[in-house]
What does this fold into?
Amino acid sequence: MDEKIPRRDAINYLLGAGLVALGGATLYPVIRYMIPPKASGSGTASVSAAKVGDLKPNEGLIFKFGDAPAILVLRPGGDPYTASDYVAMTAVCTHLNCTVQYRTDLKEIWCACHNGHFDLQGRVMSGPPPAPLDMYRVAIKGNEIFVTSEKA
Amino acid sequence: MVDKKKIYNWFDERVDLKNIEKFLEHKTVPYHKHSIWYYLGGMSLFLFVLQVLTGILLLLYYKPTAESAYESVQYIMTEVPFGWLVRSIHSYAANLFIGMVFVHMFSVFLMKAYRRPRELTWVSGAFLLFLAMGFGFSGYLLPWNQLAYLATNVGTNFATMVPFIGEWLLEFLRGGKEVTGATLTRFFGFHVAVLPGITTLLLAIHVLFVQRLGMSVPVSIERQIKQGKAKRLSIPFVPNYLYRDMLGWVLAMGVIVLLSSLFPWELGDKADILKPAPPHIRPEWFFVFMYQTLKYVPKVIGVFGFAIAGLIWILLPFFDKKSNRGEPNRLYTIIGVFVIAYIIILTIIGYVAPGE
It folds into this structure.
């Protein structure tokens, strides 16, 4: 007798292979479907955050940068008409994605969720955040304060 | 190596696997020349599950408001990878599901499978058909296109004919006096929460009845067996029947995917209340026979006629004494054939007759 695969086994292999193919053909579109397509607008790296005069020295303001919040602060004693007196950075805490705020009393960026402190360069001063906040560039054009992502 | 026996025993101790195995081993399905009709119930079930799964996928992107519903479906059809496929499958399978439930019901009727002791299986099935039509009606509006908007105006308008609570019912369905975004949000709630909840419960009861009572053997076969002209044959549910079932499901899936790929489901134009109804407008095909009837008879007679006919249809098994005794019942067969013929002919007329 030759060593052949018995007929029943062969059919079982075929059936199994068919099922695997069917499973793959079903799962592939489903998984592709579940991954959201990239939104065409989210690449914009520059937004008008506020108008000159909206912020007094030692004040912060949260604005929308793309789909996420970002924070604009006018340094204590800063001049509202000088771009370099402003700082802007993401408002998404690097610890667990809470939205941070500017503490006028501490003159620091502070995350209320787990008491994370950042200085105005976005560096972690204390608390659990593992990394600094991403800094953005600030420019003033006419009356408007524009914030641009450093990465762009 | 993992000790399979050990894992088996661990689960067996907790969920009594042996008992489940024994049950599946002993479950059989009657086998005779009409047993092909048994597969329609399982097919309907498969299509329902397919609707649930593709429906969940659509929920990932769909937005149920008048401002964004149409755009979100457009987004699914054009931007989301395989979105066109998922939505087309949902639409084709929905129609196939309702068609399948209709055929399932009529095959049960003609084989008198509703006879004692299966009257409640029949009644629960009839309500499942109404629920399926409710799914169709509510789901049709969700893309918020012009045809759906008009169909929903016409469809919900019939609510006013219900005595005493008509006006109230209309406002309940529409979420106001007119079909608006409020209607859309409401229909969305019906379609993805209320109806699925009720249907799942009723479906469980329906399937439980089928399980408790087993499949009905047609009267004619039952008589042959009693007269010794035929043997009582059956096949095991696992794996013989189940494999046949699954083969049907794979075929159905193939047909649905083929249709979806060759003819992706249309979206139409966005709903606009300022646009008049186009000529030859008609509801979804499974409502056409009723819609067409209303062109020949006054609205009141038509609507109440169908309500009463539907009620009688549900109750017919309770009066079929002959089938209960195991005798053929020609009258009921004639009624069944008449109803099928009526639905088919009126549906065809609805599609081919020139608009008035």
User: Anything to note?
Assistant: Chain A has two domains: 1-35, 43-149. The helical segments of chain A are 7-34. The longest strand of chain A covers residues 59-65.
